[in-house]
């Protein structure tokens, strides 16, 4: 057996052909799951399976009893896991069959341990004699053939039913992965998130959500299967190594890693890993790497010289797995630990992590970084094209100051690696990158509106404050507007508000750790004079005992009223717990939107007093949704669409379709993180893009209709 290299379709076909004489069914290329982007899907259509940390394996059984175990890339594992052959044959009891599942090993606590599986595989490669000290088990999660029946086109629920009907004579060796239905969750008073926490506590990698109606699609990575890992892992190509020092002398001290850009196919430098190895693994790796040595690095672009001092380069054939905390916008894995070699993967399968933005081409001469000017036209493809925090020589962003060019402005950024969202490992550099990517969609909602920001300089676990006045030291090119107090009428002391109209201003604000951007529902003219309100906003705030699901049901009723009054409402999540509804309006009175929104809120509160309230007092809000009409007061501001929120995760106030409002059945259905908000820029696109084209006269408040 080869210990390295790419195992392509020709290997799989060879394995299939070799066993064709015994009647073993043909090999089926496995169906793969997509990442869910951090949002675990919810609803009656979904089933949840434990995500396993083992070797994906197709089990093919002939009617006469012959058994073949094949990895996901066609590697023959039958001899290596020979103790599974007889228990698997007994499952089918004289019938042919094909199972999809994983081979796993357990530690002394009964938890699946990929490291132990790797140790066993290492002894197998070294042809160590004697009994195996690590027992393995095959856990099946799909049935692809039973007897003469091909089940690939049957729905998951049908395949699952047949799978669970099979006998398991030796569950110590062969068993079935549990699958939890939505009804089972509800009966157990659990949410998918609560199930995920239990899964993590039990030591599993996470969950895989599968549509009950989904067919089996060989070789495809489908939206019908979505994986939600508890820990962040990625596959990497081993491109070099450093000899160990001191107590590690004579073995591998660390590995230099790479992965392929999914667009260009280039092998990209990702950094290194020096922890997570056992002594045996370090020695085994050196034995595997020395025959692969080469004189030069294998990357498409040279890695930073200071990163690779003392490196010994190898042919990029070995694939491994690492766990990591963050992927910086400078293109490096951070806080990595080694998990083990993946002989069931080929180098071409090791791709940049999903959170990685494509890097700009390296510049031959160091100079301040220039990002492409960002226009404000609607985005039709993914807007992540460049990061303003990438250093000229493609080194990781420093923790000190960095000069970058954004459009035609030179900015100085600082502390880019500082983590602002500790639970997500989301750094200030990633905040800046998000706002750069979403700028074409966000800026129209900020243009000519005085912005109030909420700053978290020490991250969301630290102190925060609302900031209206433009701080000292702001660049002289930043547009500001001087208003007397707050609101379009003005009162109190003068305030110098920033006007964040373009990308340089947006990056400047993000560099201040201004995570949240709040704006009023009115704009200023070129002379800085407030105009009448041009937007109506109705804020749906869930009281204690209610959620955004309840907000959605009330929002549907609010929509009916607004549409009947000639308005075109747009829904957006608040990025926290509730919803906002916007409509473009014409009115000459600054107080008219509040009066209209208050009338709508009181109407619904009279119609549905048990579920809706128009009263601000918290005592009146328990078990009800508050229709907060006061957000239309000229002195108040509302979170801008596409703004981040200062919560545990980098969630975003995200515009949504009315179909999504109607379909919402669980709070997690309408939670969107920064990466998901950027992905939605391509599909469903910029939902509020045509908001201003639907402007209509603000109706007379309901209570005043019919009066002279």
From TrEMBL:
Q: Which UniProt keywords apply?
A: Ligase
Q: Does the keyword Ligase apply?
A: yes
Q: What is its EC number?
A: 6.5.1.1
Domain ATP-dependent DNA ligase family profile: where? 129-261
Compositional bias (Low complexity) at which positions?
368-393
Report the GO molecular function annotations: ATP binding; DNA ligase (ATP) activity
Bias class Pro residues marks the residues at 355-367
Q: Please tell me whether the keyword Ligase is annotated for this protein.
A: yes
List the Gene3D superfamilies. DNA ligase/mRNA capping enzyme (3.30.470.30), DNA primase, PRIM domain (3.90.920.10), Nucleic acid-binding proteins (2.40.50.140)
Q: Name one Pfam family in it.
A: DNA_ligase_A_M
Q: What is this protein called?
A: DNA ligase (ATP)
What organism does the UniProt record list as the source?
A: Saccharothrix espanaensis (strain ATCC 51144 / DSM 44229 / JCM 9112 / NBRC 15066 / NRRL 15764)
Lineage of origin: Bacteria, Bacillati, Actinomycetota, Actinomycetes, Pseudonocardiales
- Gene name, please? lig
């Amino acid at each position: 057996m080869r210990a390295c290299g790419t195992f392509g379709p020709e290997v799989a076909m060879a394995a299939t052909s070799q066993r064709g004489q015994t009647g073993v069914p043909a090999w089926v290329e496995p169906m793969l799951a997509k990442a869910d982007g951090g949002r675990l899907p919810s609803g009656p259509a979904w089933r949840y399976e434990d995500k396993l940390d083992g070797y994906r394996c197709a089990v093919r059984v002939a009617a006469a009893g012959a058994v073949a175990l094949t990895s996901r890339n066609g590697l023959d594992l039958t001899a290596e896991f020979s103790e599974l052959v007889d228990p698997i044959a007994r499952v089918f009891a004289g019938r042919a069959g094909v199972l999809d599942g994983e081979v796993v090993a357990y530690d002394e606590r009964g938890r699946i341990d990929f490291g132990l599986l790797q140790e066993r595989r290492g002894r197998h490669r070294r042809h160590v004699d004697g009994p195996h000290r690590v027992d393995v088990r095959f856990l099946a999660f799909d049935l692809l053939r039973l007897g003469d029946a091909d089940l690939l086109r049957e729905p998951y629920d049908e395949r699952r039913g047949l799978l669970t009907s099979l006998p398991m004579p030796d569950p110590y060796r062969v068993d079935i992965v549990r699958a939890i239905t939505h009804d089972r969750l509800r009966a157990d008073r659990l949410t998918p998130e609560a199930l995920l926490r239990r899964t993590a506590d039990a030591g599993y990698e996470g969950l895989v959500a599968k549509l009950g109606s989904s067919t089996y699609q060989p070789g495809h990575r489908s939206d019908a299967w979505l994986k939600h890992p508890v820990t962040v892992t990625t596959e990497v190509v081993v491109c070099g190594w450093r000899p160990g020092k001191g107590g590690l002398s004579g073995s591998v001290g660390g590995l230099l890693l790479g992965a392929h850009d999914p667009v260009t196919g280039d092998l990209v430098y990702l950094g290194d890993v020096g922890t997570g190895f056992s002594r045996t693994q370090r020695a085994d790796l050196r034995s595997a790497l020395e025959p692969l040595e080469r004189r030069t690095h294998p990357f498409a672009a040279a890695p930073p010289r200071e990163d690779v001092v003392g490196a010994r380069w190898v042919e990029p054939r070995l694939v491994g797995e690492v766990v990591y905390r963050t992927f910086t916008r400078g293109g490096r894995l951070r806080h990595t630990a080694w998990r083990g070699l993946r002989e069931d993967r080929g180098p071409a399968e090791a791709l940049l992590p999903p959170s990685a933005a494509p890097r700009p081409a390296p510049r031959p001469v160091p100079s301040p970084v220039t990002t492409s000017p960002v226009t404000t036209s609607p985005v039709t493809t993914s807007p992540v094209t460049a990061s303003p925090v990438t250093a000229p020589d493609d080194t990781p962003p420093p923790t000190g100051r960095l000069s970058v060019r954004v459009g035609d402005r030179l900015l100085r950024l600082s502390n880019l690696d500082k983590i602002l969202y500790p639970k997500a490992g989301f750094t200030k550099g990633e905040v800046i990158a998000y706002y750069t990517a979403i700028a074409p969609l966000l800026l129209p909602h900020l243009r000519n509106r005085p912005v109030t920001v909420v700053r978290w300089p020490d991250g969301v676990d630290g102190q925060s404050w609302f900031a209206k006045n433009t701080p000292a030291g702001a660049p002289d090119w930043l547009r500001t507007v001087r208003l007397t107090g707050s609101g379009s009428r003005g009162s109190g002391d003068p305030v110098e508000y920033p006007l964040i109209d373009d990308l340089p201003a947006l990056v400047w604000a993000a560099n201040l750790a201004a995570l949240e951007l709040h704006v009023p529902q009115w704009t200023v003219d070129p002379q800085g004079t407030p105009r009448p309100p041009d937007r109506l906003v109705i804020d749906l705030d869930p009281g204690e005992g209610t959620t955004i699901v309840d907000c959605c049901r009330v929002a549907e009723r609010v929509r009916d009223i607004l549409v009947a009054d000639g308005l075109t409402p747009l829904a957006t999540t608040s990025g926290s717990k509730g919803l906002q509804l916007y409509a473009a309006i014409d009115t000459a009175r600054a107080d008219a939107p509040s009066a209209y929104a208050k009338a709508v809120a009181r109407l619904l509160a009279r119609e549905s007093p048990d579920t809706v309230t128009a009263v601000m007092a918290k005592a009146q809000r328990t078990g009800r949704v508050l229709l907060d009409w006061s957000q239309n007061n000229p002195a108040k501001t509302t979170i801008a669409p596409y703004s981040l929120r200062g919560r545990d995760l980098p969630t975003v106030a995200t515009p949504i379709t009315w179909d999504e409002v109607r379909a919402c059945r669980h709070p997690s259905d309408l939670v969107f993180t920064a990466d998901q908000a950027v992905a939605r820029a391509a599909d469903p696109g910029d939902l509020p893009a045509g908001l201003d084209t639907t402007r209509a006269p603000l109706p007379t408040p309901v209570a005043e209709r019919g009066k002279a």
